[in-house]
Records
---
Amino acid sequence: MSRFLSARHRDLVPYVPGEQPQDMQYIKLNTNESPFPPAPEAVQAAAADAAKCNLYSDPLCRSVRERLAKRYGVDMENVLLTNGSDEALNFITLAYGDAEHPFAFCDVTYGLYPVLCRLYHVPFIELPLRADFSVDVEACLAADCPLILANPNAPTSLALPRDMLEIIVASRPDRLVVVDEAYVDFGAESCVPLVKKYENLLVVQTFSKSRSLAGARLGYIIGPAALIAELDGIRCSLNPYNVNRMSLAIGSAVLDADEAYMQNCCVIMENRAWTADRLREMGFNVLDSSANFLFAGHPGLTGEAYYKSLKARGILVRYFSAPRTAPYVRITIGTREQMEALIAATGEILKEAQA
Ligand SMILES: Cc1ncc(COP(=O)(O)O)c(C=O)c1O
């Protein structure tokens, strides 16, 4: 650490993203990306805007906000565009967290939440998931501070129904609830329809998973106009051109063909059911997923051993070493061929482990 680093950041523990290997071609099932590339028209739209890169992007991100507002039945004032939904979470933590306003989230959830809290010196409370990895709704109701819930949760893949989330939101009108819906399009119920009804609800979504645009870095927040205006103040103070031209162009084009992307989600859901069945036949415990990934563990293998054996066979999955998650791995759902390769490799690994 240099002597120049502010004392504020001496204890920083940065987020560690999943591996993005450049050394060889893996079957990449480790960072919950879509296996389907964006449609050629969308790629062309981005390329056309790349030619205008001498000019700044629209700081109001109107093209995408208008389309999102139409798609979700809200007004443009209810939508804020961000550089990936990670940036949405960043703005929210900066805007609403401080020493007097700790955040609460589950003990097994998206790893960026505690990282952002530490960055901004926001204390946080971790609400333990139950033994079956379900969210402890009673603990959520009791938490008297801003609450972030990933729904479906990551890496567990489990989702709460919307009426349960509504009970949590309605229970304390003076407490902010942030529902992170990065994976909602794979079979969970969105809380967007509740946004008009509650002043204390923010919904975060992303183009990274269901809309095949992880590399474009496009996320958004849907919420009450008053909160969106506050978050926009944070956005403009940090980076008023937070979304670049190519991402705005590709995002608009993708939304114009949204049905095709939602159809891709159905294919992923079919592949998910097929993979979960095969893994269960082989003795895995597989949680009931509402996301584009499975959280699975086998009694005869540690999560780490399974991850390493798959990697040696050219298949990448994600392993989390914390005590509660260590028996499992998180497997992104890809194409049917990719999942067949995963199942074949898993059969070999189990045979070796049992020999
Ligand atoms: C629960 C959850 N929220 C948010 C994100 C961030 O996604 P992005 O910044 O690509 O929109 C992720 C990424 O994997 C995630 O798992």
Note: The mean pLDDT is 97.
---
Amino acid sequence: MNLTPHKILIIGSSSKTSQALVRLISAETSWEIILVSSLITANIHYKNITCYPIDYSQPKDLKAVFLKELPTIVINTAAMTNVDLCETDHKSAWEANVTLVEYIARMCKVTDAHLIHFSTDYIFDGIKGLYAETDTPNPISYYGKTKLASENVCKAASISHTIIRTNVVYGFSAFDSNDFVEWTLDKLTDEKPFNVVTDQISNPTLTDDIALAIIKIIKKNREGTYNIAGADWISRFDFAKTIAKVFHLDESLIEPILTESLGQKAKRPLKGGLLTLKAQTDLQMNFATVEAGLSTLRHHKLTYLIEKDLVN
Ligand SMILES: NC(=O)c1ccc[n+]([C@@H]2O[C@H](COP(=O)([O-])OP(=O)(O)OC[C@H]3O[C@@H](n4cnc5c(N)ncnc54)[C@H](OP(=O)(O)O)[C@@H]3O)[C@@H](O)[C@H]2O)c1
């Protein structure tokens, strides 16, 4: 991996994770940032940063960006992350989560860039819970299968790379986001009772922590696989209750249900989550508890609203 100066190419720049990366890299480093997005409007949001709107189905679009910018580090956050949609539309899921990664890896090889790619605890079956980097994957959903395949693409590509496995990602987004926290906030503000599962357990992860871990990985020149995940291993039900508490909404609206009664299209690993001992020791990371992470998210949301009001 080329150490300095860095030119960071972030693919999928409207993702939650990418937005935290842009915030933190801009604040903490002098690295140059280049963005790629399928959203035409993304370049309006990132005012002082070059943002290329591209069509991921057109490899020549990505190739042109790689060859023009010659990044030293490529961070791929783009993915089809809707697990149920992946289960019903295998073709689109494979194209977004595997074929695109194959192409990115090939371009990293051509330009000698280091690839940082995202994976998930959904590559595991959820029988054991809290998986280590060394545990054996056994995906039970099509999304999980595509993400495992994407890890294998990185490993087989003969490129310098780091795989970040994470789970139940939440964080501030200036674009529409349909993650669990936003879904729960929408339901709570509707003020009607709603069900949340008690038997899906994970360690929800704040995007700010992911961004900080990635900066450390780049500075320390680290390769291989890292689990990056929050400090609390909790059920979706308890997570939703904490969301209500932190955002001062009515937690009595949240009612318990079991996963089997939901009839979700894709199977979920029930005991998920990731052990983070390696990141804690090697990267000196101290991951946010759910309560602290949600307070940070609330702060970002309020700051954004205040800034927007001042500008308009
Ligand atoms: N969300 C989670 O709970 C979670 C858990 C574990 C792992 N991960 C992994 O972490 C990474 C980042 O997740 P995130 O939650 O930050 O992502 P996200 O907010 O769901 O955004 C994903 C981005 O990927 C791009 N995208 C969407 N559909 C696409 C498609 N069909 N083909 C190509 N690109 C598409 C879009 O970016 P542009 O329009 O800007 O290109 C979108 O904003 C992903 O690799 C995900 O698999 C996420």
Note: The first strand starts at residue 7 and ends at 11.
---
Amino acid sequence: MKIRSGMNENPLVRLPKEFSSGDNSPMSINVTNIIVEARQKALEDTKNIPIPPVVEKVDWPVSCTVGPGLEGAISAETKVGYVNGQKGWLVYRGYNIFDLCAHSNFEEVSFLLLHGRLPNAVELKDFQATLRSDLKINQSLRLLMSFDAEHLSPMAALRLGINLMRQRQTFRDKEGVVVVSGSIASDEDSIPMETLPKGEKEAIYSFQGQTYTRPASPGENLAASTEMDSCYRLIAGVASITAAIIRLRAGKMPLEPLEHLSHAGNLLYLMTGKEPSALETRIMDVSLILHADHGMNASTFASMVVASTLSDIYFSIGSGVAALSGPLHGGANEEVIKMLQEIGEPENVTSWYKKARAEKRKIPGFGHRVYKAYDPRARILGPLAEAVTVGNPEMERIMATAKALEALVVVELGGEKKIFPNVDFYSGIVYKAMGLPAEVFTPLFAVSRVSGWTARVMEYLERNRIFRPRAIYTGEFYEEFPSLESRG
Ligand SMILES: CC(C)(COP(=O)(O)OP(=O)(O)OC[C@H]1O[C@@H](n2cnc3c(N)ncnc32)[C@H](O)[C@@H]1OP(=O)(O)O)[C@@H](O)C(=O)NCCC(=O)NCCS
């Protein structure tokens, strides 16, 4: 492995020469200023930490120290994104997260992650139009509604919805052998006919006389389902399904996207039924950019493992959703809100903290496996949370409590243990201040991370090798097989 000793310059120092997109409304200028200030603070706080060495060329096999759970293991090369926990850097395709949040938008960032470069104006417009059109997945949503989706957990419903998209988008509709819409329209009683059992033990249903056939070769299926179009459909589809689930859970019908809204704007509209303000859209956009990619985290790795078997991208992204649903991965932001409501007031922070520490509780929204400096995403979300909570007494109290807790935890645990707020500490406050229910916080993570998942899967498939780590066997070898009766 060829390693450069240090980078010539800190990517946070460079200002972008030109902005690829921009909304010049006064609101967005404020958000941009908040982010630029957060970048300055990050720079100041980490200026004495040495710039890390950078790998220029990898000669496989590489040596590394591996801990349990593959901690420290190097499993792939990537140009998609980079996280440095000491300096607090998060970089997508060479662009630091502060610049992307200040000057870009989620569509542009998704294009960047997937294609490795920023789009030009025409490409960006086309991509935005494609995503907007791909938000319309009415057939998949109708299928989802036939599954009692409102009673599933939102992440389970999202996983199901992705499977249903797969049904629409891969071999079934490509083959044209089954008119799925026909079967959706019919409930069990109206299935047109049941073929007569010809010696079979089970009955076989026939939809409109057509039968489903698998594609001739697995390659055919794969080609239909790993192309870039499927990545676009998934980026849009995860947003549509999430919004539909939230509406169904509130007893409302899913909506269709509006032509004049951005991806972030439509996401908010599809969830709430209200056209969002410029500020709400901008803040959702920033949040989507912030969560889009983050190294080889568990859900990204899960997606890549499934893709490496030459399964398809819908199954791969479904695995990412499944991994993200676990409380050790997505979901801490929901816990943060519960905790802040439990604390109640800034005055209660000290006594609450003492009790929590005495009980050896981990404080939700603090600490990170990789970041030993302040999480750059929290640097952006913190001041944004402060901005959106102004004027709402309940949220102002929650925000004041959060700030008091942060101050105390950083004094108590920041020095030696390097425990600082992570991305989840302020994201829930931002979402709650925008009127979004807590149950959508983790699915919103997926709405954004799907662009990182798809980008990394596509990159890995270019030089695919099936993932196959080892476990160290520490069991027995010479047990004598006992009969069933002798086992007690
Ligand atoms: C994110 C997290 C799982 C990282 O875990 P990790 O890298 O395995 O770190 P560890 O759990 O080994 O913690 C290292 C030390 O810091 C302490 N610590 C870590 N996070 C802490 C927290 N949130 N509150 C209090 N102490 C914490 C641990 O108790 C441990 O202390 P010790 O050395 O005295 O035993 C962990 O910080 C955590 O559970 N945070 C709260 C949940 C959360 O916010 N998750 C979202 C992450 S984006």
Note: The longest helix spans residues 228-249.
